[in-house]
Structure of Probable branched-chain-amino-acid aminotransferase:
Amino acid sequence: MSRIAYVNGRYVPHRDASVHVEDRGYQFADGVYEVCEVRAGRLIDARLHLDRLDRSLRELRIAPAMSRAALLTVLRETVRRNRVRDGLVYMQVTRGAARRDHAFPAAQTAPALVVTARAADPAQGARLAESGIAVITVPDTRWARVDIKSVSLLPNVLAKQQAKEAGAREAWFVDAAGNVTEGASTNAWIVTSAGALVTRPADSGILRGITRTVLMAVAASEGLRVEERAFSRAEALEAREAFISSASGIVLPVVRIDGQAVGDGKVGPVARRLRTRFHDFAEAGS
Ligand code: PLP
Protein backbone atom coordinates (compact mmCIF):
# COMPACT_ATOMS: atom_id res chain seq x y z
CA MET A 1 0.00 0.00 0.00
CA SER A 2 1.40 3.44 -0.89
CA ARG A 3 1.80 6.00 1.83
CA ILE A 4 -0.11 9.28 1.87
CA ALA A 5 0.99 12.60 3.39
CA TYR A 6 -1.01 15.72 4.17
CA VAL A 7 0.68 18.84 2.80
CA ASN A 8 -0.95 22.27 3.09
CA GLY A 9 -4.53 21.26 2.46
CA ARG A 10 -4.01 18.20 0.24
CA TYR A 11 -3.54 14.47 0.76
CA VAL A 12 -0.81 13.44 -1.67
CA PRO A 13 1.24 10.31 -2.39
CA HIS A 14 4.21 10.28 -0.01
CA ARG A 15 6.72 10.21 -2.87
CA ASP A 16 5.27 13.47 -4.27
CA ALA A 17 4.87 15.19 -0.89
CA SER A 18 6.97 18.35 -0.94
CA VAL A 19 7.04 21.88 0.39
CA HIS A 20 8.20 25.11 -1.26
CA VAL A 21 11.98 25.73 -1.50
CA GLU A 22 11.46 28.92 0.49
CA ASP A 23 9.50 27.25 3.28
CA ARG A 24 10.99 28.78 6.42
CA GLY A 25 11.15 25.37 8.07
CA TYR A 26 13.48 24.25 5.29
CA GLN A 27 15.61 27.41 5.25
CA PHE A 28 15.68 28.50 8.91
CA ALA A 29 14.30 25.55 10.91
CA ASP A 30 11.58 28.11 11.69
CA GLY A 31 8.91 25.66 12.78
CA VAL A 32 7.71 23.23 15.42
CA TYR A 33 6.51 19.64 15.46
CA GLU A 34 4.80 16.93 17.48
CA VAL A 35 4.88 13.15 17.42
CA CYS A 36 1.92 11.25 18.77
CA GLU A 37 1.63 7.51 19.34
CA VAL A 38 -1.07 5.60 17.46
CA ARG A 39 -2.26 2.50 19.27
CA ALA A 40 -4.99 0.22 18.04
CA GLY A 41 -5.89 3.00 15.59
CA ARG A 42 -6.30 5.62 18.31
CA LEU A 43 -4.27 8.74 18.97
CA ILE A 44 -2.63 8.56 22.39
CA ASP A 45 -2.54 11.70 24.54
CA ALA A 46 -3.49 13.89 21.55
CA ARG A 47 -4.90 16.58 23.85
CA LEU A 48 -1.58 16.97 25.68
CA HIS A 49 0.43 16.89 22.45
CA LEU A 50 -1.77 19.56 20.90
CA ASP A 51 -1.53 21.68 24.08
CA ARG A 52 2.25 21.48 23.76
CA LEU A 53 2.06 22.29 20.03
CA ASP A 54 0.03 25.41 20.87
CA ARG A 55 2.62 26.41 23.45
CA SER A 56 5.55 25.90 21.05
CA LEU A 57 3.75 28.00 18.42
CA ARG A 58 2.98 30.76 20.93
CA GLU A 59 6.57 30.89 22.16
CA LEU A 60 7.79 31.37 18.56
CA ARG A 61 4.89 33.66 17.54
CA ILE A 62 3.80 31.34 14.72
CA ALA A 63 0.05 31.32 14.03
CA PRO A 64 -1.74 27.96 14.27
CA ALA A 65 -2.26 26.46 10.80
CA MET A 66 -5.90 25.58 11.61
CA SER A 67 -8.23 25.05 14.56
CA ARG A 68 -7.58 22.18 16.94
CA ALA A 69 -10.70 20.35 15.79
CA ALA A 70 -9.61 20.63 12.15
CA LEU A 71 -6.09 19.48 12.98
CA LEU A 72 -7.45 16.47 14.86
CA THR A 73 -9.50 15.59 11.79
CA VAL A 74 -6.38 15.80 9.58
CA LEU A 75 -4.38 13.66 12.02
CA ARG A 76 -7.07 10.98 12.13
CA GLU A 77 -7.56 11.08 8.37
CA THR A 78 -3.81 10.71 7.74
CA VAL A 79 -3.72 7.73 10.10
CA ARG A 80 -6.76 6.24 8.38
CA ARG A 81 -5.48 6.73 4.84
CA ASN A 82 -2.19 5.08 5.77
CA ARG A 83 -4.01 2.25 7.57
CA VAL A 84 -1.84 2.69 10.63
CA ARG A 85 -3.04 0.61 13.56
CA ASP A 86 0.09 0.93 15.67
CA GLY A 87 2.71 3.54 14.92
CA LEU A 88 3.25 7.28 14.96
CA VAL A 89 1.70 10.40 13.50
CA TYR A 90 4.00 13.37 12.86
CA MET A 91 2.86 16.97 12.40
CA GLN A 92 4.96 19.99 11.58
CA VAL A 93 3.96 23.65 11.43
CA THR A 94 6.33 26.25 10.00
CA ARG A 95 6.09 30.00 9.61
CA GLY A 96 5.27 29.39 5.94
CA ALA A 97 6.93 30.13 2.61
CA ALA A 98 8.23 33.61 1.86
CA ARG A 99 11.16 35.38 0.16
CA ARG A 100 14.25 34.51 2.20
CA ASP A 101 14.76 37.08 4.94
CA HIS A 102 15.61 36.29 8.57
CA ALA A 103 12.95 38.55 10.11
CA PHE A 104 9.33 37.35 10.11
CA PRO A 105 7.52 37.46 6.75
CA ALA A 106 4.40 39.58 6.12
CA ALA A 107 1.61 38.93 8.61
CA GLN A 108 -0.65 37.37 5.95
CA THR A 109 1.92 34.61 5.19
CA ALA A 110 0.09 31.36 5.88
CA PRO A 111 1.80 28.86 8.20
CA ALA A 112 2.62 25.55 6.50
CA LEU A 113 1.30 22.23 7.86
CA VAL A 114 2.59 18.78 7.03
CA VAL A 115 1.29 15.53 8.56
CA THR A 116 2.66 12.03 8.02
CA ALA A 117 1.87 8.69 9.65
CA ARG A 118 3.74 5.46 9.71
CA ALA A 119 3.29 2.02 11.18
CA ALA A 120 5.62 0.57 13.81
CA ASP A 121 5.71 -3.01 15.03
CA PRO A 122 4.85 -3.06 18.75
CA ALA A 123 6.76 -6.36 19.03
CA GLN A 124 9.98 -4.55 18.18
CA GLY A 125 9.46 -2.09 21.06
CA ALA A 126 8.64 -4.99 23.35
CA ARG A 127 11.89 -6.73 22.37
CA LEU A 128 13.93 -3.61 23.12
CA ALA A 129 12.17 -3.25 26.45
CA GLU A 130 13.12 -6.84 27.30
CA SER A 131 16.79 -6.49 26.34
CA GLY A 132 17.27 -2.91 27.55
CA ILE A 133 19.28 -0.37 25.61
CA ALA A 134 22.70 1.29 25.78
CA VAL A 135 23.19 5.05 25.91
CA ILE A 136 26.26 7.23 25.55
CA THR A 137 26.75 10.68 27.04
CA VAL A 138 27.64 13.76 24.98
CA PRO A 139 28.03 17.47 25.86
CA ASP A 140 24.76 19.42 25.65
CA THR A 141 25.54 21.98 22.95
CA ARG A 142 21.91 22.96 22.27
CA TRP A 143 20.33 26.42 22.52
CA ALA A 144 18.76 27.64 25.76
CA ARG A 145 15.11 27.06 24.73
CA VAL A 146 14.88 23.32 24.19
CA ASP A 147 11.53 23.42 26.03
CA ILE A 148 10.14 24.51 22.63
CA LYS A 149 9.64 21.52 20.32
CA SER A 150 11.38 23.19 17.40
CA VAL A 151 12.44 21.38 14.23
CA SER A 152 15.93 22.81 14.81
CA LEU A 153 17.50 19.50 15.86
CA LEU A 154 21.06 19.53 14.58
CA PRO A 155 22.78 18.75 17.93
CA ASN A 156 20.22 15.96 18.45
CA VAL A 157 20.94 14.55 14.99
CA LEU A 158 24.69 14.56 15.62
CA ALA A 159 24.27 13.02 19.09
CA LYS A 160 22.03 10.26 17.76
CA GLN A 161 24.48 9.45 15.00
CA GLN A 162 27.34 9.32 17.52
CA ALA A 163 25.27 6.92 19.63
CA LYS A 164 24.53 4.75 16.61
CA GLU A 165 28.21 4.59 15.67
CA ALA A 166 29.00 3.57 19.27
CA GLY A 167 26.44 0.76 19.13
CA ALA A 168 24.04 2.61 21.45
CA ARG A 169 20.39 3.49 20.98
CA GLU A 170 20.31 6.95 22.54
CA ALA A 171 22.62 9.78 23.57
CA TRP A 172 22.17 11.58 26.88
CA PHE A 173 23.11 15.24 26.87
CA VAL A 174 25.25 16.38 29.81
CA ASP A 175 25.36 20.08 30.74
CA ALA A 176 28.39 22.13 31.80
CA ALA A 177 27.79 21.19 35.46
CA GLY A 178 28.05 17.47 34.64
CA ASN A 179 24.31 16.84 34.94
CA VAL A 180 22.25 14.81 32.50
CA THR A 181 19.60 16.96 30.84
CA GLU A 182 17.75 14.53 28.56
CA GLY A 183 18.18 12.23 25.59
CA ALA A 184 18.44 13.33 21.96
CA SER A 185 14.76 12.40 21.50
CA THR A 186 13.72 11.16 24.96
CA ASN A 187 13.59 12.20 28.62
CA ALA A 188 16.10 10.60 30.99
CA TRP A 189 15.32 8.96 34.35
CA ILE A 190 17.13 7.01 37.04
CA VAL A 191 15.97 4.95 40.02
CA THR A 192 18.12 5.52 43.11
CA SER A 193 19.23 2.79 45.51
CA ALA A 194 16.50 4.12 47.85
CA GLY A 195 13.93 3.45 45.11
CA ALA A 196 13.16 7.08 44.19
CA LEU A 197 12.58 8.07 40.57
CA VAL A 198 14.72 11.02 39.54
CA THR A 199 14.26 13.14 36.44
CA ARG A 200 15.34 16.64 35.59
CA PRO A 201 12.85 19.47 36.32
CA ALA A 202 11.03 20.60 33.18
CA ASP A 203 12.53 24.07 32.96
CA SER A 204 13.92 25.52 29.72
CA GLY A 205 16.75 22.92 29.78
CA ILE A 206 14.61 19.97 28.64
CA LEU A 207 11.49 19.26 26.65
CA ARG A 208 8.57 18.57 28.98
CA GLY A 209 7.80 15.12 27.56
CA ILE A 210 4.16 14.08 27.43
CA THR A 211 5.23 10.54 28.33
CA ARG A 212 7.20 12.02 31.25
CA THR A 213 4.07 13.85 32.47
CA VAL A 214 1.89 10.73 32.27
CA LEU A 215 4.59 8.63 33.98
CA MET A 216 4.40 10.98 36.98
CA ALA A 217 0.80 9.83 37.45
CA VAL A 218 1.75 6.17 36.96
CA ALA A 219 4.53 6.55 39.55
CA ALA A 220 2.14 8.15 42.05
CA SER A 221 -0.35 5.31 41.68
CA GLU A 222 2.47 2.80 42.23
CA GLY A 223 3.50 4.62 45.42
CA LEU A 224 6.84 5.59 43.92
CA ARG A 225 8.49 8.83 45.02
CA VAL A 226 9.48 11.14 42.16
CA GLU A 227 12.27 13.67 42.69
CA GLU A 228 12.40 16.34 39.98
CA ARG A 229 16.01 17.37 40.29
CA ALA A 230 19.26 17.33 38.38
CA PHE A 231 21.31 14.11 38.44
CA SER A 232 24.88 13.67 37.26
CA ARG A 233 26.39 11.06 34.95
CA ALA A 234 28.21 9.70 38.02
CA GLU A 235 24.92 9.33 39.94
CA ALA A 236 23.36 7.60 36.94
CA LEU A 237 26.23 5.10 36.91
CA GLU A 238 25.54 4.35 40.60
CA ALA A 239 21.78 4.07 40.06
CA ARG A 240 19.78 0.89 40.54
CA GLU A 241 17.98 1.44 37.22
CA ALA A 242 17.82 3.95 34.41
CA PHE A 243 15.37 4.43 31.56
CA ILE A 244 14.21 6.77 28.83
CA SER A 245 10.69 7.90 27.95
CA SER A 246 9.06 9.15 24.75
CA ALA A 247 5.85 8.80 22.77
CA SER A 248 7.64 6.55 20.28
CA GLY A 249 9.29 4.19 22.81
CA ILE A 250 7.10 4.71 25.93
CA VAL A 251 9.60 3.40 28.53
CA LEU A 252 12.86 1.76 27.49
CA PRO A 253 15.20 0.51 30.21
CA VAL A 254 18.83 1.67 29.99
CA VAL A 255 21.23 -1.12 30.95
CA ARG A 256 24.54 0.48 29.88
CA ILE A 257 25.83 4.05 30.04
CA ASP A 258 29.07 4.73 28.15
CA GLY A 259 29.76 0.98 28.17
CA GLN A 260 29.29 0.58 31.94
CA ALA A 261 26.49 -1.54 33.39
CA VAL A 262 23.66 0.18 35.25
CA GLY A 263 22.86 -1.78 38.44
CA ASP A 264 23.25 -5.47 37.65
CA GLY A 265 23.18 -4.69 33.92
CA LYS A 266 19.68 -6.15 33.54
CA VAL A 267 16.27 -4.61 32.99
CA GLY A 268 14.87 -3.55 36.36
CA PRO A 269 11.39 -3.97 37.86
CA VAL A 270 10.53 -0.26 38.10
CA ALA A 271 11.06 0.48 34.40
CA ARG A 272 9.22 -2.70 33.50
CA ARG A 273 6.26 -1.81 35.73
CA LEU A 274 6.01 1.78 34.44
CA ARG A 275 6.03 0.53 30.86
CA THR A 276 3.32 -2.04 31.58
CA ARG A 277 1.04 0.49 33.27
CA PHE A 278 1.58 3.48 30.99
CA HIS A 279 -1.46 2.99 28.79
CA ASP A 280 -3.77 2.66 31.80
CA PHE A 281 -3.02 6.33 32.41
CA ALA A 282 -2.64 7.72 28.88
CA GLU A 283 -5.69 9.14 27.08
CA ALA A 284 -6.80 7.16 24.03
CA GLY A 285 -8.81 9.31 21.63
CA SER A 286 -11.36 8.13 19.12
N1 PLP B 1 13.10 15.15 24.81
C1 PLP B 1 13.33 15.36 23.49
C2 PLP B 1 14.51 16.18 23.10
C3 PLP B 1 12.46 14.83 22.53
O1 PLP B 1 12.69 15.07 21.22
C4 PLP B 1 11.37 14.04 22.95
C5 PLP B 1 10.44 13.46 21.97
O2 PLP B 1 10.53 13.68 20.79
C6 PLP B 1 11.18 13.83 24.32
C7 PLP B 1 12.05 14.41 25.22
C8 PLP B 1 10.03 13.00 24.81
O3 PLP B 1 8.83 13.70 24.66
P1 PLP B 1 7.43 12.90 24.51
O4 PLP B 1 7.32 12.03 25.72
O5 PLP B 1 6.41 13.97 24.47
O6 PLP B 1 7.54 12.11 23.25
In short: The chain has a mean pLDDT of 97. The chain is about 30% helix and 30% strand.
